[in-house]
Design brief:
about 270 residues, alpha/beta, TIM Barrel, 8-stranded parallel β-barrel, two-stranded antiparallel ribbon
Length: about 270
């Protein structure tokens, strides 16, 4: 049976409960003081100078429910360093263990081993996870709109801002886009990006043209738009760029390559340095 989003969220809540027992929130609050200062993820993605004007958040993950095992026995710092050398402006690190083989240790290692800002990509349903992310050194967190109520979304946006982190506010469908648009730039401009995921998390199906059908509604927010999932070829990038999209989150198509850094360099068509 294919993994469902409800199953992932239920397992996530179980993990949070265990983590809260092991490390109470009060202890996380104390540990934040020892975390490395946040890097400016928002500026790197919006104002970065990626090759050809294309700013890529390159992703590290070991496996996924849709693809299965991608790279099980691998050094996250090595992969992230290859991405950095190939022109990525930021790194996305999957920290979900049961379904993606990730961990907070992966995130902390990447943050300490590269000069790029790092996104905690996970299924965040509790503010506790935002504190966890900051303690591990995350510079940004992914907030998936369809998992969060209005109140939860506002609380996490405020908390991330208070901790100096960027929020990547992700939507897939039009209803959620319309719901979150008023909150872009909340509680302060320069801390919130809009992600459109071309993957439907309910079915795990991906359509790289999905984002294009939403551009009219996105309007002026295209300046903070990150296109996620389904980007596999140079032609995919060029097509999206022709519509004004310049910021991307790319992972699986790079990680299946023998050398993900080479794959990113070829995708961006950048000369060797």
């Amino acid at each position: 049976m294919p993994v469902t989003l409800d199953e992932i969220v239920a397992r996530t809540r179980e993990t949070i409960a265990v983590n809260k027992e092991a490390t109470p929130l009060e202890l996380l609050r104390e540990q934040v003081a020892n975390a490395p200062p946040p890097r400016n993820f928002f500026s790197a993605v919006v104002n970065g100078h990626g090759p050809g004007g294309m700013n890529v958040i390159a992703e590290f993950k070991r496996r996924s429910p849709s693809a299965g095992v991608i790279r099980e026995d691998v050094d996250p710092v090595d992969i992230a360093s290859r991405y950095e050398n190939a022109g990525a402006v930021a790194i996305s690190c999957l920290t979900n263990g049961p379904y993606f083989g990730g961990s907070m240790e992966d995130l902390a290692a990447i943050r300490g081993g590269t000069g790029l800002p790092v996104l905690r990509k996970d299924f965040l349903v509790d503010p506790y996870q935002v504190w966890e992310a900051r303690v591990a050194g995350a510079d940004a967190v992914l907030l998936i709109a369809e998992l969060l109520s209005e109140g939860q979304l506002m609380d996490m946006l405020i908390l991330a801002h208070e901790l100096g982190m960027t929020s990547l506010l992700e939507v897939h469908d039009v209803d959620n886009l319309l719901r979150v648009q008023p909150h872009l730039g909340f509680p302060h401009p320069g801390y919130c990006l809009l992600g459109v995921n071309n993957r439907n998390l309910a079915t795990m199906e991906t359509d790289p043209s999905h984002v294009l059908r939403m551009l009219d509604l996105i309007g002026e927010h295209i300046d903070v738009l990150v296109c996620e999932s389904g980007i596999r070829t140079r032609e995919d990038l060029e097509r999206l760029c022709s519509h004004g999209i310049r910021r991307f989150l790319i992972g699986e198509s790079l990680l299946i390559h023998e050398d993900p850094g080479v794959a990113l360099r070829e995708l961006l068509d950048t000369p060797w340095r």
